[in-house]
Design brief:
about 40% helix; single chain; 35 strands; elongated; about 900 residues; six-stranded antiparallel β-sheet
């Protein structure tokens, strides 16, 4: 036999011979290493087995200190795990049987024991004890499991009586072991449940069955149990009973019922939430919507929302508050599915098929199992459109208060500051609102008593306004205009005071300055050398100065509040008693018309000269007045300031000047005509002599005659220009208007001037647009304009230069351009170019002329309803542009009259 160590054997024998025999037999046996101890007393043996472990005990039951089976029982109790072999001198079967019942492994009779028998007995004892210990261990494990099971285990015999159970059974049924022993199992079930169990016929069918049922406790309380039933068979396969494994599920059933009730309650709560709730699986399929979510999104029933997320993109458009449209990947649910938690994410939502717009607030998260694995996505949504509008409105109001130029402050009913806007802080010289919060307003003013009185009045009456001396943070003082009102709640209870504050220190100073200026203006108005009066909308005089009084010869009492015509002592309105009749009498008055027009149009009228009638007969004064009327608003009503300037002396001077100019014009015309006749005769005489008709001339004579002829021609041209200018100025030059082919006229003018161009070695070119329209004009005078301009261009262009004449149409006008590459005209001389006798000063490049040519050209062009323009740059050339209407002007006479006035200034030098 293999053993893990030395085999230990204890011999308890009081007979020395028997002991020696046993030792010799064991020594001769094949046990190998064996340690043998012996003793002749039971007490000593008990001490040894308590201190040391033995593999086998050989025990003689007839010991001096113990006899018979008592020795076996005491040793068995002391060493229950050690196999005991009894060595007895008695060959008594009854005693041997008794020993085996006590647990000994074998019973040997002294004198009959040999080595093989002893070895076999030891081996068998050891093996049997080992098997017994294993069985006991297994039974102990079973018993431990049985007794410590969390479920009740009970065994019923074939008579349906309880024969075995564990402690959990006693706790489950609330009964003691005595109450359970032999108890009929039927009494543990309600009748209907027992009938149900019997119908299962578990014993006859011979199979395990699982069910939930009810059992009756010892205190008569019925409990819910989960039961597994199985049949117990003997070694021959006969059913000897049944075993039931029972678990109390009362709490679980109650929890399930509570859970179902809770789920029902939760579903009711979810459906009645004002907050929208949407559940989605991890694939983005929208599975559940509560009523609020459906209503917020405009769905009529849950089926409308059960779809894939991307399908909603055909119905909804989401964008940020700034208006940036969001792709579906950035919608709330995809972000939540990626693991992001959303809280109060505000989004603008537009429903495409109904074109409504809302602002929603989204939230949500992933719902996870206890192991942290995601199960589904939960999205919350609230329609915050109304709140957002309210916030925006409140924000606008808040910004309005904070950006108000006037100070706005709130105080409690005791006068402590609770709010101050930036303008208010700036007014008092503070930088932060915290510097004034909770301070009493009495600390911000010069007179605390005045502040207390104003505060009490505002609380008592609901409002107070007035001025108060205040003190800034740096101690400087200023005057503030305060308008305070009491703020109340919906029930009319006072909450606080709101005050509007305006720093009027500068305003008061400006008012003082303005008052002084008004007095000064009044003094200037009254002392002005021009007549000035202020009239209202009814043309009644509100104010008049001393000059008006002197002009009219009437007193202020007669002028103020009277009609404007009465103020000037107008012949037709002066003697009328009331203003209504005065207006009727002066209905056609020019003075009255000027003032009325200014009031009606709101536009100023300046410098209109009139000659009112201030009396009858030859002795009545006939004065000339220059009238200006300027609409103004005074005290919120429209008025007109009328300025009267006596221009009688100027008008007389102008009449005298006009007579003088007419005499001058007549003199020039007469002289020019008288000079032309002898000048013609002189010129003809010079030509006759120069042509040697009167005789041969020497070289010197021809030279002086050439000089004389050039000067005679120059003088003749001057006389012709003066006469033309005089006729144009006097309006006596008649234009013979007819439709003229403009292209032919330009070609003719250029052909005429071509010899002069060749002589000057200047290239003269023509460029005309096709199909130029006919122009209504005086062909002779227009030819005079063209030749004059081309001649000037040739004269002022050096050799090798170029003069280009071109023409083109402009809508209802044509433009003729004479462009040269000559010397050019200084910029400062351009405005004076068409002035009479003006010639451009060019040092070293002087070209003689009368200085009237361009003035005459301008007059002729203006007389045709056209205009002439000039552009020039020194040493680069000059361009004259003549612009003519295609059709005849409405009134050439009117145009001539306008031009006459301009030429009159040229002739008079005015």
């Amino acid at each position: 036999m293999d053993t893990p160590g030395p085999f230990r054997l204890l011999i308890v024998e009081d007979d020395l011979i028997d002991r020696r025999l046993l030792e010799r037999l064991l020594a001769q046996s094949p046990l190998g290493r064996c340690t043998i101890e012996n003793t002749d007393r039971l007490a000593d043996a008990l001490e040894r087995v308590r201190d040391r472990a033995f593999d086998v005990i050989l025990l003689d039951p007839g010991l001096p200190d113990s006899q018979g089976m008592e020795s076996v029982a005491r040793m068995q109790a002391q060493a229950p795990q050690t196999p005991i072999i009894v060595l007895s001198g008695l060959d008594d079967a009854e005693v041997a049987t008794q020993a085996v019942h006590l647990g000994v492994q074998d019973y040997l009779i002294k004198g009959q024991v040999d080595g093989s028998l002893l070895l076999r007995a030891v081996r068998y004892a050891v093996e049997r004890k080992k098997a017994e210990r294993q069985l006991q261990a297994a039974e102990q494990r079973y018993r431990t499991i049985f007794e410590n099971s969390a479920v009740a285990i009970m065994m019923v015999d074939d008579q349906e009586r309880l024969v075995s159970w564990n402690q959990q059974t006693e706790r489950l049924l609330g009964m003691t072991a005595d109450q359970l022993r032999g108890r009929s199992i039927q009494s543990c079930y309600p009748d209907d449940q027992w009938q149900r169990i019997r119908e299962l016929s578990v014993r006859h069918r011979g199979r395990e069955h699982h069910l939930e049922t009810k059992m009756i406790r010892g205190d008569a309380r019925v409990i819910d149990v989960d039961m597994s039933l199985s049949v117990v068979h003997d070694s021959e396969g006969r059913a000897t009973g049944s075993i039931a494994v029972v678990q109390d599920v009362t709490e679980r059933r109650q929890a399930e019922e509570a859970l179902r009730a809770s789920e029902t309650q939760l579903q009711t709560i979810v459906e009645n939430l004002t907050e929208g709730l949407v559940v989605s699986d991890l694939e983005g399929r929208l599975q559940q919507w509560n009523h609020a979510a459906l209503e917020i999104h405009g769905f009529a029933n849950p089926e409308d929302g059960r779809c894939q997320l991307h399908e909603l993109a055909n119905t909804f458009e989401l964008s940020t508050l700034e208006g940036v449209v969001l792709p579906v990947e950035q919608w709330p649910l995809p972000r939540i599915l990626k693991g992001e938690e959303l809280r109060d994410w505000e989004v603008r939502v537009r429903r495409v098929d109904r074109d409504w717009r809302r602002v929603f607030s989204y939230g949500g998260t992933l719902v996870r199992d206890p192991q942290g694995q995601p199960l589904l996505a939960l999205v919350t949504v609230n329609d915050i459109t109304g709140r957002k509008r309210a916030e925006e409105t409140l924000l606008v109001k808040d910004r309005a208060v904070n950006s108000a130029t006037s100070g706005i402050a709130f105080t409690d009913l005791d006068g402590r500051v609770t709010f101050a806007n930036p303008s208010c802080l700036k007014m008092w010289g503070f930088e932060q609102e915290s510097e004034v919060l909770h301070r009493f307003v009495t600390s911000l003013v010069v007179s605390p008593q005045d502040a207390v009185a104003a505060l009490q009045a505002a609380v008592a009456t609901g409002a107070w306004s007035g001025e108060m001396a205040a003190r800034r943070k740096d101690g400087s003082e200023f005057v503030v205009q305060v308008s305070a009102s009491l703020v109340k709640d919906k029930q009319g209870r006072p909450l606080c005071l709101m005050a509007s504050l305006v720093d009027v220190t500068e305003t008061r100073r400006l008012h003082a300055i303005l008052d002084g200026k008004q007095k000064n203006l009044a003094a200037i108005f009254d002392a002005a050398p021009l007549g000035m009066l202020l009239a209202n909308e009814d043309l009644q005089v509100v104010r008049a100065n001393e000059t008006v009084r002197q002009m009219s010869g009437r007193g202020y009492a007669q002028i103020i509040n009277g009609d404007v015509c009465q103020a000037l002592a107008c012949l037709r309105g002066a003697d009328v008693a009331d203003s209504v009749r005065a207006r009727e009498a002066c209905a056609g008055c020019q003075f009255r018309t000027i003032i009325g027009k200014a009031l009606e149009s709101g536009q100023a009228t300046r410098g209109v000269e009139i000659q009112p009638v201030w009396g009858e007969g030859e002795e009545a004064p006939r004065v000339w007045l220059s009238v200006s009327a300027e609409p103004v608003f005074v005290d919120g009503a429209q008025h007109v300031v009328v300025v009267l300037h006596d221009v009688t002396d100027r008008k007389r001077a102008e009449e005298e000047l006009k007579e003088t100019l007419e005499m001058k014009a007549q003199f020039i015309s007469t002289v020019s005509h008288e000079l032309r006749t002898p000048m013609t005769a002189i010129r003809e005489a010079v030509i006759i002599v120069q042509d040697e008709i009167a005789g041969k001339l020497n070289k010197d004579q021809k030279h002086f005659l050439d000089i004389a002829k050039r000067n005679i021609d120059r003088l003749a041209r001057l006389i012709d220009d003066v006469l033309d200018f005089q006729r144009l100025n006097a309006g006596k030059m008649k234009f013979h208007l007819q439709a003229v082919n403009l292209a032919v006229m330009i070609e003719e003018a250029c052909t005429t001037m071509q010899p002069h161009a060749a002589k000057s070695k200047v290239d003269l070119a023509v460029e005309l647009e096709a199909h130029l329209p006919a122009v209504v004009c005086d062909s002779d005078r227009m030819m005079q304009v063209l030749t004059n301009l081309i001649s000037n261009a040739l004269k002022f262009t050096p050799e090798g230069g170029r003069v280009l004449v071109s023409a083109g149409g402009r809508e209802e006008q044509v433009a003729i351009k004479i462009r040269d590459t000559g010397y050019g005209i200084p910029k400062e001389d351009l405005p004076k170019l068409f002035t009479r006798f003006f010639r451009v000063h060019r040092p070293g490049k002087e070209i003689k002329g009368t200085g009237l040519g361009l003035a005459i050209v301008s007059k002729i062009v203006t007389g045709h309803g056209g205009r002439i323009e000039v552009e020039s740059e020194l040493d680069k050339g000059t361009t004259f542009t003549v612009i003519l209407p295609v059709t005849q002007p409405c009134s050439l006479a009117e145009a001539a009259e306008s031009s006459d006035r301009g030429l009159e200034h040229l002739l008079t030098g005015a």
